[in-house]
Amino acid sequence: SCTGLRNFLRRLSFSVKCYSNMNHLQTMCPCSEIKAKKSHILDCSGSTCTHRTAPPGSILPWRSFSCKEGTRTPSKRKENTSIVTSELLHKNLLISKQQNWNDISPIYNPMTKRIKEKLEELHKKYTFNLGSPRMRLGENVYFEENGCIFLSKADDVDEGNVDILFSTEDLGFSDAFIQRIRISPDQRYMAISLKSENSEEATCVVMKLGCFPVVEEVIPSVFSFEWATNDILYYTSQKNLKCQNVFMTTFTYQKHTKLVYTEQDARFFVDIYCTKDRRFLTINSNSKTTSEVWLVDCRHPFELPALVQARTKGVIYHVEHRNDELYILTTYGEPAEYKLMKAPVASSGKENWQSVYAVEKKTKLVDFEMFSDDCIMFLKNAGHLYLNVISFVSHSVQSIKLPTWACEFELESHPEHTTSTCYFQLSSPVHPPKRFAYSFKENNLIEQAVQEVPIITNCHTTRLLAKSKDETLVPITVFHNTNSKELHRKPLLVHVYGAYGIDLNMSFKEEKLMLIEEGWILAYCHVRGGGELGLRWHKDGCQHNKLKGLHDLKACITLLHKLGFSQPKHTALAASSAGGVLAGALCNTDPELIRAVVLQAPFVDVLNTMMKTHLPLTIEEQEEWGNPLEDEKCMKYIKSYCPYQNIKPQHYPSVFITAYENDQRIPLMGILRYVQKLRKAALDYASRTSKKGNWVPNIILDVQANGSHCDSSWEHSLSE
Predict the structure, then answer these.
(1) Catalytic residue among 577, 708, 712, 713
(2) 183 lies in some domain
(3) Are 306 and 450 within one domain?
(4) Is it true that the peptide bond before 643 is cis, omega within 30 degrees of 0?
(5) In contact, 294 and 228? CB cutoff 8 Å
(6) Overall average pLDDT of the 284-303 stretch
(7) Domain final residue pick, 429, 455, 481
(8) Is 631 an annotated catalytic residue?
(9) In this predicted model, what pLDDT tens digit does every residue of 378-427 receive, in sequence order?
(10) 577 and 683, same structural domain?
(11) 471 and 450, same structural domain?
(12) 462-480, pLDDT tens digit by residue?
């Protein structure tokens, strides 16, 4: 598949303050595609070649490189007074907030017990084993379950005749889950990435397969990896949330590791994938707005990588290969939405790119999968999901509208590009996943009845359009119980994100279904800054347009109340990570619209964070928020909406925040300062006023000692 595109969009969350558990084409964020004790066997991405002079990312000549495991040396810093004072303040604030939570949390014990029992009941009832992702290579089938990797013959896979190739517990990785699996072409080696919930970095374990599989190599701090040949593995190293180096390791009788590529520009993140036909291994270097791809010919893996097209500001592109032609998914040309183009491998520069298919205006390209004679595009338009099948043989395009209830999809692994069927799953916040298949031979869509999923008949889905301050129509998806009477009296939970071109997470969650059954209304506001209506929708809500997302959110909530969906005193707002910017801003500008706010690892101190270039993500974040250090106008603009900067004595809604003590993406200090300032403002306002019925909001912070940024596993969701 064109996983470069999928993972580029995923990486927007991985490399920034936005971490949502999204659908397949949404960025290179490993955690967004991982569920506890379940691996997603990811597919490969493609590229092209032509040797040109290297820009910021450069190809290094072959040279020896010793890849040794060792302890990380902490960076030295001066122990000046300001640092000591800051650390002491941080420690005191943390102790104070933790003590406050310990004092308050027992109040909720009876409610916690009831909710936990209900969620576990729903989890058992609606969560089905649709079959672990399976990877078929020839007559062998590989799959993962409960931390073990199994091998079976294709004819025996349903009979239970399997061999265990790997076990996390047996090899001392009991606290880790399997993130990615790659099998060498001759199936003699298997590379696995393992990741713990408390670390951003993964470990790659290389197994030599056979009658008795053995560990051949353990490589720390690895992000992506692919087999170029039977015994040559390429991988990227990760440090401080950045991937900028590509290495090659050979597993012949003379094992050695060499540095192949390095990226010099801090805004760019490097990963590697194979084209579906395994002709090329691609080195993909992406910022949030610009791409560059280099090709390694898998037939000649020791030759220097060749450049497809030098990076051009504002042009994103990802490539696949078929019949000596490169198929390029790119934003090049007008309009600046995704287009499928092609070019000869021998002359791959953009001057030779020819149009194959263009995505329609206000349509989101959700995912893209390449096959031998066809490709499939998953699209979203006006809240509905579509499947477009492009035939390279008949040069035709068939469009299939997917079920109206579907809001999310997950593409399954298809390592063999010659397969005749494409498998995927559809879901919504209140509909458990259902498995579907598209048959290229039959030219139709088939619903897979692996196990009957109970139909939720009492939930109604409504799609609305709210008119924002500048007359732009903003989509809203609403779920509510059709048996609900007097909707204006029911509690409403509003969801918002609005950053990095990423859609709101609308996959199935037991807690969402529980709320529906208890009479709640769920609303998802697809504001600008997100990606629901394509690349333009994101551009219209980032940098100097960030306030448009805030205006959109206000318009959405106002319309919901106007149409009788609840009222302000029964309305709550939920957001995570970068969604905390808009949620926190609304609390400052229009606190009367909501009664409560729930924030998970929120980004609430935009200005101070973007002023600190020593933080690992600040430089690459400038393409989303701007550069306040060099642009005074930008600094004033960020200050105008930054949640922390605009706190003032007024009547705030109650706020519950979950933060992570070791979160590398959202500095805990910023959240501690935000909570302290917000609590003081609320108390100052309460002490000055004595209105009848006036209440002091609860400002609660729960700091988790363990867990990663916006962890989305079932266990964590249950705890949250």
Answers:
(1) 577
(2) yes
(3) no
(4) no
(5) no
(6) 94
(7) 455
(8) no
(9) 999 888 899 999 999 988 999 999 998 999 988 887 667 778 888 899 99
(10) yes
(11) no
(12) 999 999 999 999 999 999 9
Cβ-contact 332, 353 below 8 angstroms: yes
Are residues 372 and 344 both part of a single domain? no
Going from the C-alpha of 480 to that of each of 488, 523, 593, the distances in angstroms are 12, 9, 20
Closest CA to 615 of 240, 290, 317: 240
Report DSSP letters for 228-294, one per residue: SSSSEEEEEEEETTEEEEEEEEE-SSS-EEEEEEEE--TT-EEEEEE-TTSSEEEEEEE-SS-EEEE
Q: Which stretch of 450-459, 485-494, 653-662 has the lowest confidence by average pLDDT?
A: 450-459
Which positions ≥6 away from 504 have C-beta within 8 Å?
A: 20, 495, 496, 497, 524, 525, 526, 530, 532
Tokens of 97: 């907030």
**Same domain flag for 352 and 369:** no
Neighbours of 466 (CB within 10 A): 23
* Overall pTM > 0.90: no
* Contacting residues for 38 by C-beta, under 8 A, at least 6 apart: 132, 144, 177, 178
pLDDT of residue 12: 41
Domain end marker among 343, 358, 373: 358
Give the integer Cα–Cα distance in Å for 272 and 260. Answer: 12
Asked if 439 and 534 sit in the same domain, the reply is: no
pLDDT digits (tens, 9 = 90+) for 519-555: 999 999 999 999 999 999 999 999 999 999 999 999 9
Q: Which of 43, 367, 663, 702 is catalytic?
A: 663
- Active-site residue, selected from the candidate residues 40, 526, 709, 716: 709
Query: Domain holding 463: CATH number?
Result: 3.40.50.1820
Same structural domain for residues 646 and 681?
Answer: yes
Concerning whether 663 is annotated as a catalytic residue, the answer is: yes
Cβ atoms within 10 A of the Cβ of 88, count?
10
What residues contact 27, with CB distance under 8 A and at least 6 apart? 7, 8, 9, 10, 11, 12, 13, 14, 15, 500, 502
544 is catalytic: no
Cα–Cα distance list, 678 to 100, 608, 674, 700 (Å): 15, 16, 6, 10
Run of H or E residues at 84: helix 81-104
Identify the domain containing residue 219 by its residue range.
Answer: 3-13+132-358
303 domain residue, yes or no: yes
Residue 29 predicted with pLDDT over 50: no
How many Cα atoms are found within 13 Å in the side-chain-facing hemisphere of 462? 15
Rounded distance between C-alpha atoms, residue 183 and residue 611, angstroms = 44
Total domains in the fold of the chain: 3
261 in a domain, yes or no? Answer: yes
